[in-house]
Design a protein that fits this description.
Chain A: Keywords: Ligase. Chain A: InterPro entries: AMP-bd_C, AMP-bd_C_sf, AMP-binding_CS, AMP-dep_synth/lig_dom, ANL_N_sf. Chain A: Belongs to the ATP-dependent AMP-binding enzyme family. The structure holds 2 protein chains of 2 kinds. Chain A is of the alpha/beta class. Chain A is built from 15 helices and 28 strands. In chain A, strand 26 (435-445) and strand 27 form a beta hairpin. The longest helix of chain A has 19 residues, at 35-53. Chain A is globular. Chain A starts with 5 loop residues before the first helix and ends with a helix. By secondary structure, chain B is mostly helical. Chain B has a single domain, classed as Orthogonal Bundle (Non-ribosomal Peptide Synthetase Peptidyl Carrier Protein, Chain A), CATH 1.10.1200. Chain B has helices spanning 3-21, 42-56, 73-85. In chain B, helix 1 runs antiparallel to helix 2 (42-56) and helix 1 (3-21) packs across helix 3 (73-85). Chain B is globular and about 30 Å long. The chains are: A alpha/beta, B mainly alpha. The A-B interface holds A 25-26, 92, 238-244, 246-247, 250, 262, 266, 270-273, 277, 415-416, 447-448, 465-466, 469-470, 473, 478-479 and B 22-24, 27, 39, 41-47, 49-50, 59-62, 64-65, 67.
């Protein structure tokens, strides 16, 4: 088996004819394709797209809209098979953000399902009748057509040796109003895929319930590619509530689920279900944040036939860094695990590597560490250090080498497994004509880990709260939208004029207290 | 159950929906679709159901996730009335 590139792996892997992807609606299977047929279709699309693009051997960049569908996955693979660099876009990306991303990425191609194109075509055309890029509309199960003028040049202003090696670019929240474009090589993806499979040991008999966004590297590598590698089947669905998760697991006899602490917390809070519900689940992996100690321990008792795994990673590490099986060491509840095979972790403070038990910043070294950030060499240099990838996560290791993640070195917040930056939300809010200044904070939330609050200073006293909430709905992704917008008279600042973030929570609690006590 | 208390359930459910989707209850009508018309996303869906459980004192079960429930204001109110009366 040629493992050099993702493309060659897709082309040469002996696909299990009996395994593939099922689309489900409310737990009923509505569509199916075997991996072999899906890759064959993607190969056909790739030939057609490359001919139509007239790109020759030039690498092209394609934004791919990723809803939970077989055709989105086929599109993503078609880009890879045609030698392009795909950038998966979350299904929940709002049109305004798509336009900002398009302006910044300068893609050669945008691939959208017909349903989405109807909603966003106006905005895309405002860009000057598809300025420099073409659009592929995917309709039905496997029909595609091009929109826009044929491009003759695939030269781009931005080029770098890292981009030349990129196999895929994932978008991750940033602090600047634009996401970070995390460039991963074939070697990064393939190395992490093998590391994850050695750790998870998925089998051909497994059934994977896939409901997290396919715009995440953890879903792409840790679920989609992992299932394909193992010859296990995938069931695509949308899960809005933990009880729906149980319903899908029981109905479809699912044996592998990867999810975030928010869903696990809600699952454990509900007492209406009991074993043998979830009895088919062989493995449950929890990633994207820290699940509460008592929640995971309670789960161990409630789903006794399931191996509960806890993992830690970040897109910059392709993404999985460490994990462990909680059933084997229940006293390690609260840990993030041991490094995967081939990964070296260090905890460092300003003086160097620290001893076990001492808190510092987490650094990661291994074949899975990214090439760099797209169009951001300054930030790339800042995090790709001689000690490895600087994660901006704070934590410590215990004497047995288990990692414990305890905080962030920057202002990032975690809402239901989404890493978000207050700065990017503040930027969007501050553009609204009603708002003079905005500061965003988070407070603890029983369901979501953290809840976003926006403190705003208004230009006028007459302001419409509802107008601001609907503005947020248009401009921000669901996880970024403040649960509360609170008007204050002034935003606390440091002596250098920056937002004093440590003063925001006390100010919010004071205003909140005043609002509800009087 | 009296008509008054049924009307009160309607008003309370609409109030909860309004609180979650940040819309005034008077701008919410019976045939509004929760996702398409009121912008309920997957994060808010969980909040909405948690709020309804807390407010009306019931606990959802696996069978409650029929696709017919929770797609409109009307079907959500009907579901809550059913559970409160049960």
């Amino acid at each position: 088996m040629n493992m050099t590139t993702l493309k060659s792996w897709l082309q040469s892997h002996g696909w299990n004819e009996d395994a593939g992807i099922y689309e489900t609606g409310s737990g009923d299977v509505i569509n199916y394709v075997s991996y072999r047929d899906m890759i064959a279709t993607a190969e056909q699309w790739a030939v057609g797209w490359r001919n139509e693009l007239g790109a020759g051997d030039s690498p092209f960049i394609a934004l791919v809209w990723m809803d939970q569908s077989i055709r989105s996955i086929t599109s993503l693979f078609a880009v890879i098979l045609s030698g392009g660099i795909p950038i998966p876009l979350h299904e929940y990306t709002v049109p305004d953000e798509v336009i900002r991303i398009v302006d910044w990425i300068e893609p050669d191609l945008i691939i959208l399902p017909d349903s989405k194109l109807q909603h966003i075509d106006g905005e895309l055309q405002l860009e000057g009748k598809y300025k420099g890029y073409r659009v592929i509309e995917i309709s039905g199960k496997d029909q595609w057509c091009f929109h826009g003028e044929k491009t003759t040049s695939f030269e781009r202003e931005y080029s770098s040796s890292q981009l030349d090696q990129a196999a895929i670019i994932f978008l991750s929240s940033g602090s600047t109003g634009l996401p970070k474009g995390i460039m991963l090589s074939d070697a990064n993806i393939m190395a992490n895929l093998m590391q994850i499979q050695r750790d998870v040991q998925l089998e051909a008999k497994d059934r994977v319930l896939l409901f997290k966004s396919l715009g995440y590297s953890s879903t792409f590598t840790g679920e989609l590619l992992l299932a394909m590698l193992a010859g296990a089947s995938i069931y695509l669905c949308s899960v809005r509530h933990p009880l729906e998760l149980i319903r899908f697991v029981d109905k479809l006899q699912i044996s592998y689920v990867c999810t975030v602490p928010a869903l696990i917390t809600a699952l454990d809070k509900n007492r209406s279900w009991s074993f043998p519900s979830m009895g088919s689940l062989r493995k449950l992996l929890i990633i994207g944040g820290k699940a509460a100690h008592n929640t995971v321990q309670s789960l161990l008792e409630r789903i006794p036939s399931t191996q509960v795994m806890i993992g830690y990673g970040l897109t910059e590490a392709a993404p999985r860094v460490c994990s462990f099986i909680l059933n084997d060491v229940p006293d390690k509840a609260g840990a993030a695990g041991l490094p995967l095979d081939g990964i070296v972790m260090q905890i460092r403070d300003e003086f160097g590597e620290v001893q076990p038990g001492t808190t510092g910043e987490i650094y990661v070294q291994g074949p899975n560490v990214m090439l760099g950030y797209y169009k951001d060499e300054v930030r790339s240099k800042a995090v790709l250090t001689e000690y490895g990838l600087r994660t901006n996560d704070i934590g410590h290791m215990d004497d047995d080498g288990y990692l414990y993640v305890t905080g962030r070195a920057d202002n990032a917040m975690n809402v239901g497994g989404h890493t978000l930056y207050p700065e990017s939300i503040e930027l969007v809010l501050s553009i609204h004509p009603m708002i003079a200044e905005a500061a965003v904070l988070s407070i603890e939330d029983a369901h979501w880990g953290e809840r976003i609050i926006a403190l705003i200073v208004c230009h006028q006293k007459d302001n419409s709260e509802q107008e601001l909430y609907s503005y947020c709905q248009q401009k921000l992704q669901p996880a970024q939208r403040p649960k509360e917008i609170v008007v204050v008279s002034t935003i606390p600042k440091t002596s250098s004029g920056k937002i004093n973030r440590t003063a925001l929570k006390p100010l919010y609690l004071e205003v909140h207290h005043d609002k509800y006590v009087h | 159950m009296t008509n008054t208390s049924i009307d009160s359930i309607y008003n309370q459910v609409v109030h909860v929906i309004g609180k979650i989707v940040k819309k005034s209850p008077e701008n919410i009508v019976d045939d509004h679709q929760l996702i398409e018309d009121l912008g309920l996303d997957s994060l808010l869906f969980l909040d909405l159901l948690a709020e309804l459980e807390a407010k009306f004192g019931f606990e959802l079960s696996i069978d409650d996730f029929d696709p017919e429930y929770f797609h409109s204001v009307h079907s959500t109110v009907a579901f809550v009335k059913d559970r409160v009366q049960a």
